Amino acid sequence: MNQARQERLTPLRHLFTVVVFMLAACMLTYLIPPIQSLRPWIPSEEDVPIVRLFKRWGEIPAFAGHGGSYRATAGEGSGTKRLAEAVGETVAANLGTKPIIAPPRAAEEEITIDPAEYSGISVQIEDPTGRGMRAFYETLERTARGDEGAITRVAHYGDSSIATDLITSTVRQNLQARFGDAGHGFVLAAKGFIPYKHRGVVQSSNPEAWELREVVRRQDRHGRYGYGGVQSTAMRGSWARIGTARRGEIGRKASRFDVFFEQQPRGGKFSVRVDREDREIVSTKADVLGDGVFSIEVPDGPHSIELRYQRGGPVSFYGVVVERDGPGVVYDSLGLVGARANRLLNFDETHIRRQLEQRGTNLIVLGFGGNEASDDRTEQMFYEDYMKVLRRMRQGREDLACLVFAPLDQARRTRGRIRTLATIPLIVAAQRRAATDSGCAFYDTWQAMGGEDAMRRWYKARPRLAMGDFRHATPAGYEIIGNMFYKAILAGFARYLSREPSTAAPASTGPSTPIAESADASDSPDSAGSTDSLDGGIPSSSADSNTSPKR
Question: Looking at residue 3, what is its pLDDT?
């Protein structure tokens, strides 16, 4: 019996020995200076060891709408107050807000923007040269005036935070509610297996029957990726369907579909079918490599379009545009998961210029920096990259407005504390300099969130505004960013209408030094620096555009 008892106690003795050894090893890290960096916990850390293991695991990053599916809005009362205490009143005020819809305006009345429409923001669009947004505001003025067919088009390129179409769908809905719904805009013809999702449009295809070439991966030797940065090549049996939204107040009608595709000497044929009408056969064959657009006009209302590969040689699509006659606004979301800004240099220069011209784009927004935050580079290196990208995308066109959209705060958990990556202030400074030197506008998303350690505050807020990877926002967080950017656009438009001088950068555009990581004062949502609070159709071309009779 004693032997059996000894056998039962032996594992417990071993466990006790291991525990004592581990505790002794931990104690030594506090007593021996050379190994103090191995201490399991220090008093300034937020989480006590072991306890953090039982906390809820962070959400899956919301890449293109996958993960982070909940949408929370702060209501009146204690919820709003708690959110304001966590992230500041300015940020909290932009969750769950709806745009103020101006009453109908008589034709002879002056266009005005009520300051109440853009209240609740602390960061403005910076446009010190006045050249960045002028072309956009001129077009938006014609749209606001109600000129026949006046459509204002925005192309918002970016990384995974744009690929979710959460920031962009918020801006799209607000602008269309305010100035008119001119349709959802551009979507890829087929997405294959890449994480890509748009709100306010119906899209489906057979992904296994499509071959994709992405500008991010430099997969096309000619650099012809199309307006959206992804070339979708159809194989035998390929099909894709795109239609108007079935729910919501925006995006439920269309009066025109434009199919963007590649023309080539060996090009094959594809069919187009709208709703249940007869199919039309379109040839992509041409004497030289080029870009084509096939347009179909339909009565304004709910519709869908189906593309199918037919026969012959290869057929490569760039995307499909869903639009209405206007007046109104179209906001194209052109997110590229995993992209850095310099990946846009993979575009053939002539090709991307032609694509932007065919699309009739009035403003191009470049929203990168999240992936660059992981790169070990200097501010000057980031600056040089952005100068090259802005030259490639704008190409000196004064009729094309341009704006650099700074990245969200990017953070890492170190010793239990969530801290902004040291590269973020460098990237933001480089983007601001490049935008100013290129005659473009700049929006400081980072400061709009709250600046240094904003991701920490957003993650701890309720409702949670940041994902557990500390690189992406939740749907509620993206909604806030979209609302703040929309209001900044309105504020800039109001200044344009009153012919006030453009907003200049708040500080020197010269190189800056990284922000120190030890400032506990950044925990205060109001401690971050910010600026003062603020009280015509697609060009036709007989060479590459075909139009179906009106249905």
Answer: 66
